[in-house]
Write a structure and sequence with these properties.
InterPro entries: MoCofactor_Util/Proc (IPR052698), XdhC_CoxI (IPR003777), XdhC_Rossmann_dom (IPR027051). This is XshC-Cox1 family protein. Pfam families: XdhC_C (PF13478), XdhC_CoxI (PF02625). By secondary structure, the chain is α/β, with parallel strands linked by helices. Helices cover 30% and strands 23% of the residues. The strands form three sheets. A six-stranded mixed beta sheet has the order 9-10-6-7-8-17, with helices on both faces. A six-stranded parallel beta sheet has the order 13-12-11-14-15-16, with helices on both faces. The longest helix is centred in the middle third of the chain and has 17 residues.
């Protein structure tokens, strides 16, 4: 939707109905990723693309039908080898597209979503694209880190789906999820397309050691954009960290200072200090703890290393309150030994910090398994049903 938001918003503000076609799922070598969109306005103008030209003519007709009253529709396009004139994808891929009318009545939250996109604030649009009750197809939730707006047709579905969508938004993931008709996680019948407008959160791993390699792999798996930084070029090489997004050879504190000055560190950033060497750790942690607030700061080392590091940081001028933000020794108490086990204990602590988990065993806890932020208030839209 981002690539057609300007003409979509113009049509919406003028009171017109537009036809929006969105790629919601892809298979094989599809030409566009989920979230790619094509818009057709009431005057017949088209913007955007869902396939680079292969099926645009067909979806244009569907979008035009949506403008004139057709119900929201989920359609699949694949390769058409048997008939050269049939609508299909020459690349051999398969795409699912969702076609819907968009107007003030059907999408009253559009202007606030557009404002989020303009300000680069994280927001996700979750739309029902398939449901046993046809009247609920096209209903949507607008999910932000601290609020939910709109409805999927019932408070139970809003709560369950909204909780999962907030997790996807935190990772910047766009994809289709399957649920039961009322949001049951193990059920089927309802499919919801989640279009997340947020960059993936960053994980900065300082210290190019074996433990860092295991953590970086796991960070990538969890959806982080991972950077490994070390001042030693012999260790900080792409060959040793092939799964990460960036390998940087620089003094850790200097690199982090530059990222802060460039505005690339935010409240979702995770900082893991794996060097356990005072000449790196102390200036790096001073920079991390006095910079913008981040989601997590952890430092590796034994309890003896931790005590020595705390003393050095206090002597360097760090306050007790600032020091309390460091998770050290890093990770949860899983009894981990290997780099891979240690990486899991660190990742578990990061997840617990993100969602307010205790780190204990679920069997010994009570209440809901999935926590919901107290600020997460569901606000029904004027199109509420059910």
């Amino acid at each position: 939707m981002r690539d057609v938001i300007d003409p979509l918003l113009r049509a919406w503000r003028s009171g017109e109905t537009a036809g929006l076609v969105t790629v919601v799922r892809t298979f094989n070598s599809a030409p566009r990723d989920p979230g790619a969109a094509m818009l057709v306005t009431a005057d017949g103008a088209a913007a955007g693309s869902v396939s680079g030209g292969c099926v645009e003519g067909a979806v244009y007709e569907l979008a035009t039908d949506a403008i004139t009253g057709a119900a929201p529709l989920l359609e699949r396009y694949g390769v058409s080898d048997d008939d050269a004139f049939a609508v299909g994808l020459s690349c051999g891929g398969i795409i699912d597209v969702f076609v819907e009318p968009v107007s003030r009545a059907r999408f009253p939250e559009l202007e606030s979503v557009a404002a989020d996109l303009e300000a680069d604030r994280p927001v996700a649009v979750a739309t029902i694209i398939e449901h046993p009750d046809a009247s609920r197809v096209g209903l949507r939730l607008i999910v932000r880190p601290d609020s939910i707006e709109g409805t999927l047709g019932s408070p139970v579905a809003d709560m369950r789906v909204g909780d999962d969508v907030r997790g996807m938004l935190a990772q910047g993931r766009t994809e289709t999820l399957g649920f039961g008709p009322e949001g049951e996680r193990m059920g089927s019948g309802m499919r919801v397309f989640v279009n997340s407008f947020a960059p993936a959160p960053r994980m900065l791993v300082f210290g190019a050691i074996d433990f860092a390699s295991a953590l970086a792999r796991l960070g990538t798996y969890l959806g982080y954009r991972v950077t490994v930084c070390d001042a030693r070029p012999v260790f900080a090489t792409p060959a040793r960290f092939p799964e990460v997004d960036q390998v940087v050879v620089d003094w850790p504190a200097r690199y982090l200072e530059g990222e802060i000055e460039a505005g690339r560190i935010d409240g979702r950033t995770v900082i893991c200090v794996m060097t356990h060497d005072p000449k790196f750790d102390v200036p790096l942690l001073m920079t991390a703890l006095r910079g913008p607030e981040v989601a997590y700061v952890g430092a590796m080392g034994s309890r003896r290393t931790h005590d020595d590091r705390e003393r050095r940081l206090l002597e360097a001028g760090l306050t007790e309150a600032e020091l309390a933000r460091v998770r050290s020794p890093i990770g949860l108490d899983l009894g981990a030994r290997t780099p891979e086990e240690t990486a899991i204990s660190i990742a578990a602590q990061i997840i617990a910090a993100r969602w307010g988990g205790s780190g204990g065993e679920l069997a010994e806890a009570s209440g809901p398994i999935h926590r919901q932020s107290p600020a997460s208030v569901v606000t029904k839209s004027p199109t509420e049903v059910g």
